[in-house]
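Sequence, please.
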C-alpha cells in the first residue's frame, strides 16, 4: 500500500477500503479499473474488521510520505519500503505503465531483504464485445485467450486472460497499425477498443475518439453513434468483428449502427476477475437492437 494521496486519504484503513471499492461494485469514476478476487477481498475485510489491538493500531496509522507499507493477510506490518525505488521501479509490478495510478499493478514480486513475496495483480483490461447472433453480449469467465497488451513487436510477452468471448460473440477491432489483428493465436492488444492501461475510461470512450469525425447524434434520443450503412465511411471500411475462432468479418455486415454512449453497470463472476462494467446499444442489419459489453478481465503470464 503506497502513499495514500492516491487512495483519497492518509490512513491505512482508508486505503484498504478504497481497494475494496471495485470488488463491492462501487463506482470508481476517475480512477483506474482494478479489482480483487473474492478470496482476497474477504481477507481484506477480515483485517478491517479485526479486533486485534495491533491491527487496529496499524489501521489508524498514517503512511509516511513517499513510503509504502507491506502488510500480510493477517494485518501484520512486514516492512516499510521506498515507493519510488522499491515499488515504482520494480519491473515485475509494471507500475510504469500507469503513471500516477499507483494502486494498479499486473502483479509481481517483492524482495524484502532476501525474502521474496508474491504480489497479487489487481489490474483489469477492457475490450468491447458484441454478439453475432443479435443477442445481448454476456459475461464469460471460461474462454481464455492470449493477448499482447502492448501490441506486436513491442518486446512484451503475451498474457492469458481470465475470460473472454462466448461462442456467439466477437471483439470489436480495428487494425490500427496495419500489422494484423491476430498472429499465431495472439490478439494485438492495441487493436481492441478498451482502456489501454488507463488511457481511456473504457472501450466506448476510445471508440468515440477514434471515429470522432464520424460520430453522429440521434435527433430523437440524443444518443451518439457510429453509422455503418455508408460503405465509403472509414468506420464501415475499418471496423471488424473478431470471433472466438479468430475469424474476421466487417462490422457493417452484421450491424448498421454502434452506439458510443454507454451505461455503467456491474456484472461480475464470483472471483471478481471478470466483469462487465459498461454496456452500449448496437443496431443489427434487421433493425433490432441489443447491448454490447465492455468486459474487464485480469491477465496472467
Amino acid at each position: 500500500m503506497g502513499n495514500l494521496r492516491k487512495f483519497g486519504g492518509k490512513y491505512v484503513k482508508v486505503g484498504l477500503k478504497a481497494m475494496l471499492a471495485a470488488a463491492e461494485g462501487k463506482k470508481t469514476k476517475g480512477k483506474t479499473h482494478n479489482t480483487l478476487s473474492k478470496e482476497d477481498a474477504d481477507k481484506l475485510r477480515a483485517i478491517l474488521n479485526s479486533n486485534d489491538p495491533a491491527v487496529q493500531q496499524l489501521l489508524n496509522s498514517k503512511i509516511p510520505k513517499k513510503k509504502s507499507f507491506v502488510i500480510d493477510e493477517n494485518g501484520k506490518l512486514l516492512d516499510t519500503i521506498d515507493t519510488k525505488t522499491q515499488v515504482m521501479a520494480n519491473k515485475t509490478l509494471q507500475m510504469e505503465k500507469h503513471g500516477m495510478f499507483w494502486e494498479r499493478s499486473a502483479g509481481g514480486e517483492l524482495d524484502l531483504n532476501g525474502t521474496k513475496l508474491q504480489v497479487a495483480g489487481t489490474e483489469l483490461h477492457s475490450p468491447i464485445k458484441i454478439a453475432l447472433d443479435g443477442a445481448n453480449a454476456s459475461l464469460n469467465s471460461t474462454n481464455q485467450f492470449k493477448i499482447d497488451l502492448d501490441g506486436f513487436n513491442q518486446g512484451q510477452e503475451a498474457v492469458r486472460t481470465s475470460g473472454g468471448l462466448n461462442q456467439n460473440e466477437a471483439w470489436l477491432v480495428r487494425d490500427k497499425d496495419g500489422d494484423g489483428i491476430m498472429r499465431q493465436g495472439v490478439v494485438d492488444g492495441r487493436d481492441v477498443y478498451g482502456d489501454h492501461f488507463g488511457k481511456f475510461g473504457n472501450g466506448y470512450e476510445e471508440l468515440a475518439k477514434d471515429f470522432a469525425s464520424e460520430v453522429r447524434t440521434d435527433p430523437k434520443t440524443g444518443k451518439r453513434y457510429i453509422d455503418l450503412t455508408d460503405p465509403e465511411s472509414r468506420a464501415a471500411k475499418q471496423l471488424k468483428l473478431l470471433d472466438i475462432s479468430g475469424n474476421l468479418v466487417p462490422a457493417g455486415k452484421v450491424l448498421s449502427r454502434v452506439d458510443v454512449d454507454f451505461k455503467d453497470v456491474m456484472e461480475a463472476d464470483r472471483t471478481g476477475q471478470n466483469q462487465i462494467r459498461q454496456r452500449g446499444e448496437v443496431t443489427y442489419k434487421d433493425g433490432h437492437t441489443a447491448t454490447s459489453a465492455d468486459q474487464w478481465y485480469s491477465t496472467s503470464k
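The chain is about 15% helix and 30% strand.
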